[in-house]
Amino acid sequence: MKYYALPPYKNKAVEFISLISREDRERAIKDAGYNTFLLKSKDVFIDFLTDSGTSAMSDRQWAGIMLGDEAYAGSENFYHLEDAVKDVFGYPYLVPTHQGRGAEHIMAQVLIGGRGGFIPNNLYFTTSRLHQEIAGGTWLDVSIPEASDPKSTCPFKGNIDVAKLETYIKEKGPESIPFVRMEASVNMAGGQPFSMENERAVSALCKKHGIFLLLDATRIVENAHFIREREEKYKSWSLKKIVRMMCAFSDGCTMSSKKDHYVNIGGFLATVRKDVFERARALVVVYEGLHTYGGMAGRDMEALSIGIKESVENEELVAHYVGQVSVLAKMLRDRGIPLCEPPGAHAVFLDAKQFLPHLSQSEFPAQTLASELYIEGGVRTMERGIVSGQHGSEPYDGLEFVRLAIPRRVYELAHLMYVADVVETAWRRRSHIRGLAMVYEPKDLRFFQARFEKK
Ligand code: F0G
Predict the structure, then answer these.
(1) How many CB atoms lie within 10 A of CB 32?
(2) Is 259 tagged catalytic?
(3) Which of 17, 336, 428, 429 has the most CB atoms less than 10 A away?
(4) Taking the model in full, what pTM does it have?
């Protein structure tokens, strides 16, 4: 494979970045409690913390920003958004929210609503799981074992273990399963897709038992791209047609538009179920804003509806983006650096357990590595291991990743080459890297604000 993925765009505006000295970086990360979430953005050179809300908008989206109709009710931009959602995803009912977790909150309240029950998920996402629990539900894992094996090259690590799901349905009874959540391009497994065949089987099982199938459609376009590459039957399908079919198998979705739709803020829930929609519409006004803006400004809804269309209609954008991820993975693999394979949708995941084998999990290898990459070259990444994964006092012996998430349409090949060099430099001095001790632990979603000290 080549070391480049050609961008199907050119720059129209640029933002300046600069690398502060090593001494300043050491001070900044110490002040941030060795937590990359607590760094100031001005102290970061290459920001691979997340692909969420960090995309560059297109000239068309910026033009849309000027067309904001900021009326409190019935904004014109809402109707454009509704049309885009119907056209691309096919759901007739839409409730806008300020971002993905707003949609998760409302969906969990509507579908669980304090009645309890068990929610099978293909692995978890941090905010999705917490919203299920806040609404009174219990998260269940129905991911396949390959999802938790960084060395497995299974092409569809995001699949649901259908037999396991069936067993849970039998054991718990369908009436105690408010919904099944199926995430596209499973973030915590490395951005790994599920297959259409798997979704079809999950959908049939849910239909048979009258269980709502909720799609987390956040990175659906990349998942559709992988379906086309890896499932023979869809080789000649357009991305739009694949996305439509993925949605058609579900009863509804939650969406963080801050990823696939190239906007800095925005999200929604959408469904085919009128009853679910009506309850969600009643709740959105309490938590987000009126049902025709849901926490977004009119201009944001306009940029979003344009972004939704761009995400499926300009197929080269998706190929380029996923190409950037695999190019960075190749550069790192060629340097002998342990990665989660195969590279997924939105990020390269370094395997911190193999990178720092002398550190035990209680010394936070992924948190340590993320802070070292910042010290080494001002590269900001994110811990996706025991700090993000452990929930309350439950034991954790899972994945220990550092995520290098690539913002869409922002960085160039030279930036990726620089990042690969930074990781390699840290790799060469890995045996001298000391672990961390946690000195402050918030109760929920501790990875955002936890603080650490060098051991
Ligand atoms: N679902 C998935 C799969 C996500 O990756 C995210 C966010 C959300 C839901 C929540 O959406 O942030 O708009 O409220 N992921 C970001 C990330 C934060 O960095 O992976 P949100």
Answers:
(1) 18
(2) yes
(3) 17
(4) 0.96
